[in-house]
Amino acid sequence: MTIAVTGSTGQLGRLVIKALQGADVVALARNPEKASDLGIPTRKADYNSVEMLERALQGVDTLLLISSSEVGQRAAQHRNVITAAQSAAVSRIVYTSLLHADSSPLSLAVEHRETEQMLKDSGLRTTILRNGWYTENYAGSIPAALSNGALIGSVKDGRISSASRADYALAAAKVVTTDGHDGKVYELAGDDSYTLTGLATEISRQTGRDIPYRDLPEAEYAAALEAVGLPKPLAAAIASWDSGASQGALFDDSKQLSSLIGRPTTPMRDVVATALAGVQADA
Fold first, then answer.
1. pLDDT at 93 over 80
2. What average pLDDT does the segment 21-42 reach?
3. For the domain with range 132-162+188-252+266-283, which CATH number is right: 3.40.630.30, 3.40.50.300, 3.90.25.10, 3.40.50.1820?
4. Homologous superfamily, domain 3-131
5. pLDDT score at 282
């Protein structure tokens, strides 16, 4: 059984391929040269070209469709992949969606809902992996928090059930290599939830410094992100996602992720420790 992985050179894609070691896997990449270190066959594939995708999917049984990173173009690009998969006689598609995509207030959910509907209408065997937030999304703010003396955001007391990228990668690898997942929708999130106040407390504990969490109104947080160089639309989007998290958009306590991977999800404190080790290494 040949498995193809889109987004193979991305952070999640690389971890999935690592978890699939020993399986019959091909990497799909817009720039195959970036996948040269993966150690598996690579095929050139561009989300915007149905013809190229169809060629790349020849002989593929199962496709892991890691959602495109191009927000705003995802739905059209995913439609191209699904169309090509149908033409290439791919048997099954496993798709990485968003936690509670059917009801999430996050703007990101719209294109995921559209893609889920496309998959439902495709006639193919499908499995939906609704991934929650990566803990690394917030751990990436640690250097700025240390520099500024505070962690900032707009989550209020919203609880975040995040997990590490490696946890989500292992779940995807498990689903594409085992049976019994057809037609299923998995809500994947970390076993334990935390607030950003809790994250700041953990950063403080591990660094021995007092790093408080400072909650900002959404517009003020967006302005702060823009001030450090983020494009205005992205800054506004990130702030809105924080606001959505304050409404519970990133919380889930079903423990479906740990059930899939057969072990507890990676604790937030471990991801913080890894991030801090990286900060020290760069110092």
1. yes
2. 93
3. 3.90.25.10
4. NAD(P)-binding Rossmann-like Domain (3.40.50.720)
5. 65
Instruction: Name the 3-class secondary structure at 271.
Output: helix
Computed over every residue of the chain, the mean pLDDT equals 95
Summarised one tens digit per residue, pLDDT across range 197-209 is 999 999 999 999 9
| pLDDT tops 80 at residue 49 | yes
